[in-house]
Amino acid sequence: MAWFRWWRRIRDRKGPGGVLAGEARYVVLDTELTGLDARKDDIVSIGAVRMRGGRIEIGGTFHELVNPKAVLDGRSVVIHGITPSQVEMRPPIDDILASFQRYVAGAVLVGHCLSVDLAFLNREARRLTGAPFRNPVVDTLSLYGWLRHRETEHPAFSAMAPILSLFDLAGAFGIPVVEGHTALGDAYVTAQLFQRFLPLLAEAGVTDLASLLRVGDPARQAENLLPPGGQAHF
Fold it and tell me: What is the pTM assigned to this prediction?
C-alpha cells in the first residue's frame, strides 16, 4: 500500500520519533448526500483539498458532482443546493470513485464528523473493489473535544455550551464561510479548522502522527466530547 511505504520511508528517515504531524500528507474531504441513511441514500458530490502539515495546497483540489441512484428530493436540495438537473448528466459514483482513490493515495483523510462521509465512501468502495478505504483518518470534531478537555487557551474552548457544527467552529476560530454546504467549500473550511488545531495540539504534546491519529480517531468522538463528569449535555 502506498500509505505504508510512505510512512516507513519517513519514519526510517526520522528515526524513533517517527512521522511528525506537521510534515504529514493530508486530504481534507467532504461529501454532499441525498440523505444520511447509508443503506439507501447516495453521494451527490465529493470535494477535497490537500495539505502538507499545516499548509493548504490550493491548487489541485478534487471536486465532482455525482449522479445518484437515490432520489434527490427537496429535503436535501435545501441543504446543499444541488438540483436533479445539475446531476442528471454527471457520471455515477462508479466512474468517479477510482479517481478519488488515486487522489487520496498515501494521505491521511481528515473530515468533520468524518464517520458519516466514510460510511458512504466505504460502502461504494466495498461494492466496486471489495475493500474499504485503508487510509488513516482524523476527525476534527474529535480533535476539538480532546483540546476542549485540555482547557486550551482559546475562547472557543471556554464557551458555556459545546460548539459542534463545522460552521459554529469556523465562526469561533474566525474562519470565513463563503460557500457553505458545497463539498469543496466545506472541505476548505475544515482544512482551515485543522490548520488552526495543529499548533494547539503541538502545544498539548501531540507532535507525531501516531498521537494525532489516536486523539483524532472518529471512534473516540463521543468520548472526547463528554464533559469531565462523564455525562453528555448536548
Answer: 0.88
